[in-house]
Amino acid sequence: MQQDQNYTASFLVDQSPREVFNAVTNARGWWSEEIAGSTDKLNDIFLYHYQDVHRARIKLIEVVPDKKVVWEVLDNYFNFTQDETEWKGTKMIFEISQKGNQTQLHFTHQGLVPAYECFDVCNDAWSNYIKNSLYSLITKGKGQPNPKEGGFNAEVIKKWGLQEQ
Description:
By secondary structure, the chain is an alpha+beta fold. The chain has a single domain (7-159), classed as Alpha-D-Glucose-1,6-Bisphosphate, Chain A, domain 4 (2-Layer Sandwich). It has helices spanning 17-24, 27-30, 119-140, 154-159, and strands at residues 7-13, 35-37, 45-50, 54-64, 68-78, 91-99, 102-110. The termini are far apart. The mean pLDDT is 90.
Protein backbone atom coordinates (compact mmCIF):
# COMPACT_ATOMS: atom_id res chain seq x y z
CA MET A 1 0.00 0.00 0.00
CA GLN A 2 1.24 3.49 -0.85
CA GLN A 3 2.23 5.63 2.12
CA ASP A 4 0.65 8.80 0.74
CA GLN A 5 -2.22 8.62 -1.72
CA ASN A 6 -3.36 12.20 -1.09
CA TYR A 7 -2.89 14.77 -3.82
CA THR A 8 0.34 16.75 -3.28
CA ALA A 9 2.27 19.42 -5.15
CA SER A 10 5.36 21.45 -4.24
CA PHE A 11 7.43 24.22 -5.74
CA LEU A 12 10.25 26.59 -4.84
CA VAL A 13 10.20 30.36 -5.36
CA ASP A 14 12.53 33.26 -4.68
CA GLN A 15 9.83 35.19 -2.80
CA SER A 16 9.71 35.35 1.00
CA PRO A 17 7.54 33.11 3.21
CA ARG A 18 5.39 36.23 3.90
CA GLU A 19 4.77 36.75 0.18
CA VAL A 20 3.87 33.07 -0.29
CA PHE A 21 1.55 33.15 2.75
CA ASN A 22 -0.17 36.31 1.49
CA ALA A 23 -0.72 34.70 -1.91
CA VAL A 24 -2.12 31.47 -0.42
CA THR A 25 -4.62 33.40 1.71
CA ASN A 26 -5.70 35.41 -1.34
CA ALA A 27 -7.75 32.55 -2.81
CA ARG A 28 -9.58 34.97 -5.14
CA GLY A 29 -6.21 35.77 -6.70
CA TRP A 30 -5.38 32.21 -7.73
CA TRP A 31 -8.36 29.83 -7.25
CA SER A 32 -11.56 31.67 -8.04
CA GLU A 33 -12.95 35.18 -8.07
CA GLU A 34 -16.28 33.51 -7.25
CA ILE A 35 -15.74 33.21 -3.48
CA ALA A 36 -17.98 34.63 -0.74
CA GLY A 37 -16.56 35.15 2.72
CA SER A 38 -13.08 35.72 4.12
CA THR A 39 -10.11 33.51 3.23
CA ASP A 40 -7.29 34.70 5.46
CA LYS A 41 -8.03 34.37 9.20
CA LEU A 42 -8.48 31.46 11.59
CA ASN A 43 -12.11 30.25 11.69
CA ASP A 44 -13.05 32.18 8.53
CA ILE A 45 -15.60 30.30 6.44
CA PHE A 46 -15.90 30.87 2.72
CA LEU A 47 -18.01 29.52 -0.11
CA TYR A 48 -16.37 28.51 -3.38
CA HIS A 49 -18.50 28.17 -6.50
CA TYR A 50 -17.77 27.13 -10.08
CA GLN A 51 -20.74 27.31 -12.43
CA ASP A 52 -23.22 24.53 -11.64
CA VAL A 53 -20.32 22.07 -11.41
CA HIS A 54 -18.79 22.59 -7.95
CA ARG A 55 -19.71 24.28 -4.68
CA ALA A 56 -17.80 24.00 -1.41
CA ARG A 57 -18.07 25.55 2.05
CA ILE A 58 -14.59 25.71 3.58
CA LYS A 59 -13.28 26.74 7.01
CA LEU A 60 -9.77 27.88 7.90
CA ILE A 61 -8.89 25.60 10.81
CA GLU A 62 -5.19 26.46 11.14
CA VAL A 63 -3.41 29.68 10.24
CA VAL A 64 0.25 30.15 11.21
CA PRO A 65 1.50 33.32 9.49
CA ASP A 66 4.28 32.67 6.96
CA LYS A 67 4.27 28.91 7.76
CA LYS A 68 0.95 27.09 7.35
CA VAL A 69 -2.69 27.40 6.30
CA VAL A 70 -5.21 24.55 6.60
CA TRP A 71 -8.69 24.55 5.07
CA GLU A 72 -11.33 21.97 6.01
CA VAL A 73 -14.22 21.23 3.66
CA LEU A 74 -17.46 21.47 5.63
CA ASP A 75 -19.82 20.94 2.71
CA ASN A 76 -19.30 20.04 -0.90
CA TYR A 77 -21.27 19.44 -4.09
CA PHE A 78 -20.10 18.13 -7.46
CA ASN A 79 -22.58 17.73 -10.32
CA PHE A 80 -20.46 14.91 -11.82
CA THR A 81 -20.11 12.43 -8.92
CA GLN A 82 -22.58 9.96 -7.48
CA ASP A 83 -20.92 9.94 -4.05
CA GLU A 84 -22.20 13.10 -2.34
CA THR A 85 -19.64 12.78 0.47
CA GLU A 86 -16.59 13.40 -1.72
CA TRP A 87 -14.38 16.18 -0.35
CA LYS A 88 -16.48 16.53 2.84
CA GLY A 89 -14.12 16.48 5.79
CA THR A 90 -11.00 16.63 3.62
CA LYS A 91 -8.29 19.19 4.30
CA MET A 92 -6.22 21.40 2.02
CA ILE A 93 -2.86 21.97 3.71
CA PHE A 94 -0.46 24.69 2.57
CA GLU A 95 2.97 24.36 4.24
CA ILE A 96 5.54 27.12 3.75
CA SER A 97 9.20 26.63 4.61
CA GLN A 98 12.66 28.02 3.88
CA LYS A 99 14.91 25.92 1.64
CA GLY A 100 18.24 27.70 1.48
CA ASN A 101 17.57 31.15 0.05
CA GLN A 102 14.23 30.07 -1.44
CA THR A 103 10.75 29.42 -0.10
CA GLN A 104 8.99 26.11 -0.61
CA LEU A 105 5.25 25.71 -0.80
CA HIS A 106 4.05 22.17 -0.20
CA PHE A 107 0.33 21.60 -0.85
CA THR A 108 -1.57 18.49 0.23
CA HIS A 109 -5.25 17.81 -0.33
CA GLN A 110 -5.54 15.31 2.51
CA GLY A 111 -8.33 12.89 1.73
CA LEU A 112 -8.35 13.42 -2.04
CA VAL A 113 -7.40 9.86 -2.93
CA PRO A 114 -7.39 7.82 -6.16
CA ALA A 115 -10.53 5.93 -5.08
CA TYR A 116 -12.57 9.14 -5.38
CA GLU A 117 -14.77 9.58 -8.46
CA CYS A 118 -13.42 13.11 -8.85
CA PHE A 119 -9.76 12.17 -8.38
CA ASP A 120 -8.64 12.54 -12.01
CA VAL A 121 -10.58 15.77 -12.61
CA CYS A 122 -9.59 17.19 -9.20
CA ASN A 123 -5.96 16.13 -9.64
CA ASP A 124 -5.77 17.99 -12.95
CA ALA A 125 -7.57 21.03 -11.52
CA TRP A 126 -5.33 21.27 -8.42
CA SER A 127 -2.24 20.84 -10.60
CA ASN A 128 -3.34 23.85 -12.63
CA TYR A 129 -4.41 25.99 -9.66
CA ILE A 130 -1.33 25.25 -7.52
CA LYS A 131 1.50 24.79 -10.04
CA ASN A 132 0.33 27.43 -12.52
CA SER A 133 -2.07 29.96 -11.00
CA LEU A 134 -0.77 30.16 -7.40
CA TYR A 135 2.83 29.95 -8.62
CA SER A 136 2.14 32.82 -11.04
CA LEU A 137 0.46 34.91 -8.34
CA ILE A 138 3.53 34.48 -6.13
CA THR A 139 6.19 35.00 -8.80
CA LYS A 140 4.50 37.49 -11.16
CA GLY A 141 1.85 39.12 -8.97
CA LYS A 142 -1.06 37.74 -11.03
CA GLY A 143 -2.72 34.33 -10.97
CA GLN A 144 -5.30 32.79 -13.31
CA PRO A 145 -8.33 32.22 -11.05
CA ASN A 146 -11.74 31.24 -12.35
CA PRO A 147 -13.45 34.50 -13.35
CA LYS A 148 -16.41 35.94 -11.46
CA GLU A 149 -19.63 34.56 -12.89
CA GLY A 150 -22.00 37.27 -11.76
CA GLY A 151 -22.62 36.49 -8.10
CA PHE A 152 -23.79 33.74 -5.88
CA ASN A 153 -27.29 32.64 -5.20
CA ALA A 154 -28.26 35.11 -2.44
CA GLU A 155 -30.27 32.47 -0.55
CA VAL A 156 -27.26 30.13 -0.36
CA ILE A 157 -25.06 32.93 0.96
CA LYS A 158 -27.66 33.90 3.55
CA LYS A 159 -28.24 30.26 4.55
CA TRP A 160 -24.51 29.75 5.16
CA GLY A 161 -24.19 33.10 6.94
CA LEU A 162 -21.67 34.62 4.55
CA GLN A 163 -21.29 38.01 2.91
CA GLU A 164 -20.43 38.62 -0.73
CA GLN A 165 -17.06 40.34 -1.12
